[in-house]
Amino acid sequence: MRVHGLTKRFGSLVAVDHVDLTVPGQHVYGFLGPNGSGKSTTIRMLCGLLTPSEGEIDVLGLRIPAQAEALRSRIGYMTQKFSLFDDLTVRENLEFMAAIQGVPKTRTARRVDELIEQYHFSDRQKQLAGTMSGGQKQRLALACAVIHGPELLFLDEPTSAVDPESRRDFWEKLFELADAGTTLLVSTHLMDEAERCHRLAILDQGVLVADGTPSELTAKLYGHTFIVEADDPRRAQRALVDAPEVLGVAQVGNTLRVLTHAGGVDTGGAGQYLRDLLGRAGQVVKVHAAQPNLEDVFVAVTRKSRQEERMA
């Protein structure tokens, strides 16, 4: 998948702003961003469900939206909200989606049996979908989305309403699909999910602010990360939150995780800056450099892009 200059305007609102993307085949590619960052709008344009205001889209060798009809039989799309039929059984939902997706009738029963086994519904195939748990519904929705064996699968916030164990099981299924040759594009606002992706893009206010593997993004972090131990973490946080060189402060248990600007200052200098700042606030602290994570990257690139926007 290749995208160049992808833009979507709704009146004066620019929801997606000149995004360039290349999604490799057989990868789990993540879209990370807060609600309202343009993830869902981008996915709908890539699927051919929404016409872009500007830009070029090439998906599986097809020009979108001109060839969107030819694309639909080759992709799957799973939305955030459970969109199957509560009053149909597991098997009936799968059979209905097979018919919708044009799976030949001679192959439908075998394909439904395969998915019931693969997605662990053997003892629930006669259960009404509306009576299942959130995690079971998400597994069923995924099974329905791949009933026709799509080459490319779009998933829009697929696990936002399920428990951690169900999320782990769901992600195992995604990697099994990637191993079998499917390319997956997954939007999320959850950092632990983003870390699972082979590669990811970070969107903020419709702008692509970072793109790479999780390790590449953390290696290129614009800033320094520290753990601060303080006698009064809440008071220490208040002293740091508006400091000009501090990008973000988050309390983690009894410590603070602090991200500072890079600004030509090395880690030692940034650490001393925090000690001096907190010392003037009457705090006795210990400051340790920490390994950056994706949350640090997200804070750094989004704050940096917003500062650049204000200065433009």
TrEMBL record:
Gene Ontology molecular function: ATP binding; ATP hydrolysis activity
A matching Pfam family: ABC_tran
Ranges of residues in domain ABC transporter: 1-230
Signal peptide stretch: none
UniProt keyword terms in alphabetical order: ATP-binding, Nodulation, Nucleotide-binding, Transport
Family: Belongs to the ABC transporter superfamily.
Highest classification ranks of the organism: Bacteria, Pseudomonadati, Pseudomonadota, Gammaproteobacteria, Lysobacterales
Coiled-coil ranges per UniProt: none
Name recorded for this polypeptide: ABC transporter ATP-binding protein
PROSITE patterns documented for this protein: ABC_TRANSPORTER_1, ABC_TRANSPORTER_2
